[in-house]
Specification:
The protein has about 325 residues and is α/β, with parallel strands linked by helices. It has nine helices and 15 strands. It folds into two domains: about 140 residues, Medium-chain alcohol dehydrogenases, catalytic domain (Quinone Oxidoreductase, Chain A, domain 1), CATH 3.90.180; about 140 residues, 3-Layer(aba) Sandwich (Rossmann fold). Helix 1 packs across helix 9 and helix 2 crosses helix 7. The longest helix is centred in the middle third of the chain and has 23 residues. The two termini are about 20 Å apart.
């Protein structure tokens, strides 16, 4: 038997709660993992609250991230006792995920757990930090360097935003953070932001082109915010898009692309090839210090995850929430 957050749906709507389940209910997979830690992402919160079409089949255990130890395996890649990490691959959407004490998974979705981190630390990073690293790597590939000017991070108080600030600052970029919670300015500057601006400057409909300001940007907000970021990006700059906190729409013009040569780079973390995952986690191990993870993270128990999902969507959570199974 094991405990899990279980989401189900019937004629009365969606139900969610902490359940005790028999191991026989686990879905198919060639590796069974004893989960040590998971985390609560924006997507997990949408799934738990039912406020977004995340779950594709019911019943479902949410949780797009997990870290743990292999209990049983028919895969040649992993043996009992191996420590592993998972981000994405539709887990928590179409396949039972990490907000449970056990998970049965396809071995191709796993990577060896990074030696630079404990399970709690890797889940403090989770998909949020991994996505931020992929975004920074995309800026680097497009030739955005620290000497070219400021780099903007939107949704700065969220998980992706917090890690993007920390990573960019560690690499020597001058970071401007956009947030709806200016009371968190000290927190954002402690992460490495040189300037903090009100998200209201970017969240309303704007002009096709604005004064050139950013050499690059990491956007997790979408909609009018992303449009305004593109409009103010310098000639030849790059903006990475990895989220939709404001909305999925993009009411933009082609002006930034055809008049300033701006690049919009999409960042997918769910289906990313294994080689990219390994490189991103290698870079995270080089760039992130334990004290940074502590500053960004709060740990909760599995039975607190449902309530915390509402707080996360309401913008009451700063940084990252780690869900510890033994807490």
């Amino acid at each position: 038997m094991f405990k899990a957050i279980l989401i189900d749906k019937n004629d009365k709507g969606q139900q969610v709660g902490l359940e005790t389940l028999d191991e026989s209910r686990l879905p198919d997979g060639d590796v069974t993992v004893r989960v040590e830690c998971s985390t609560l992402n924006y997507k997990d919160a949408l799934a738990i609250t039912g406020k977004g079409p995340v779950v594709r089949k019911f019943p479902m255990v949410p949780g797009i991230d997990l870290a743990g130890t292999v209990e049983a395996s028919t895969s040649e890649a992993y043996a009992p006792g191996d420590t592993v990490l998972l981000n994405g691959w539709g887990v928590g959407e179409t396949h039972w995920g990490g907000l449970a004490e056990k998970a049965r998974l396809d071995s191709r979705w796993l990577i060896p757990h990074p030696s630079a981190f404990t399970a709690r630390q890797s889940m403090a990073i989770g998909t949020a930090g991994y996505t931020a690293m992929l975004s920074v790597m995309a800026l680097e590939r497009q030739g955005v360097t620290p000497d070219q000017g400021e780099v903007l991070v939107t949704g700065a108080n969220g998980g992706v935003g917090s890690y993007a600030i920390a990573l960019l600052a560690r690499l020597g970029y001058r970071v401007v953070a956009s947030t709806g919670r200016l009371e968190e300015t000290d927190y954002l500057k402690a992460l490495g932001a040189e300037q903090v601006i009100d998200r209201a400057e970017l969240s309303e409909p704007g002009r096709p082109l604005a004064k050139e300001r950013w050499a690059g940007a990491v956007d997790s907000v979408g909609s009018h915010t992303l449009v305004n970021v593109l409009a103010a990006t310098r000639y030849g700059g790059t903006v990475t898009a990895c989220g939709l906190a404001q909305g999925m729409d993009l009411p933009a013009s082609v002006a930034p692309f055809i008049l300033r040569g701006v690049t919009l780079a999409g960042i997918d973390s769910v289906m990313r090839p294994r080689e990219d995952r390994l490189e991103a986690w290698r870079r995270l191990g080089e760039l992130l210090a334990p004290e940074q993870l502590d500053a960004i993270t709060r740990t909760i128990a599995l039975d607190e995850a449902v309530e915390a999902a509402d707080d996360l969507l309401a913008g009451r959570i700063r940084g990252r929430l780690v869900v510890e199974m033994t807490r």
